[in-house]
Design brief:
Blueprint: E1 3-8, H1 15-24, E2 30-36, H2 47-57, E3 64-69, H3 73-79, E4 84-88, H4 92-108, E5 113-117, H5 128-136, H6 147-165
Parallel strand pairs: 1-2, 1-4, 2-3, 4-5
Bound molecules: coenzyme A.
């Protein structure tokens, strides 16, 4: 049984990620999409929200499962019996970071291989933070995300707006 992990923060999942998983799924028996629970990134979506959107995106791919993880990626891979990590290289600029990560992961766990796939070129410039930025500025992001993620992003932007608009009470209550 060949099990692979496709890890990421998925804040939120984009069609670029979906393209990667769709390419990777036929190459293995089970593909686990590993959603990083804690991350140095300032995330918009909670781990539960991110998982729900990822699960929705892959509900038609029978060998794809979604799991949260924390700690080292290679420890998660070992725990679930995965022999491969799947990563995408979208552009030359990804290469150095990806090579560093692959070599560190290999030092940490030599038995786990990293496989690189090339995503579709129409998503080569897409990232979660760009999608959030465009959505926050009222741009149309429907070509980059699923309808459910689109809806979730609009709701999140509204909620963030509402929080900002709510006047803070002073300690004196005024
Ligand atoms: N399509 C669209 N966007 C893509 C993409 C693709 N094919 N591939 C990557 N991206 C985006 C990501 O959404 C992310 O966007 P953002 O920065 O705007 O959020 C950006 O490109 C960078 O991606 P990536 O480097 O994969 O970051 P990530 O946050 O998605 O995932 C982890 C990083 C979780 C895999 C990594 O931090 C990790 O392994 N953490 C565990 C701790 C550990 O083991 N550390 C040692 C590893 S060296």
């Amino acid at each position: 049984m060949k099990t692979a992990v496709y890890p990421g923060t998925f804040d939120p999942i984009t069609r670029g990620h979906i393209d990667m998983v769709t390419r990777a799924a036929p190459l293995c028996d089970t593909l686990i999409v590993g959603v990083a629970r804690s991350t140095p990134k300032n995330v918009w979506f909670s781990i539960e929200e991110r998982i729900e959107l990822v699960e929705d995106a892959f509900r038609d791919l029978p060998n794809v499962r979604v799991q949260a993880f924390e700690g080292l990626l290679v420890d998660f891979a070992k725990k679930i019996g995965a022999g491969f990590l799947i990563r995408g290289v979208r552009a030359f600029s990804d290469f150095e970071y990806e090579m560093q990560m692959a070599l560190i992961n290999r030092k940490l766990a030599p038995e786990i291989e990293t496989l690189f796939l090339m995503p579709a070129e129409e998503y080569s410039y897409v990232s979660s933070s760009r999608v959030r930025e465009i959505a926050a500025l009222d741009g149309d992001i429907r070509r980059y995300v699923t309808p459910k993620t689109h809806e979730a992003l609009l709701a999140k932007i509204q909620a963030r707006q509402d929080t900002r608009d709510t006047p803070r009470r002073s300690a004196a209550g005024g």
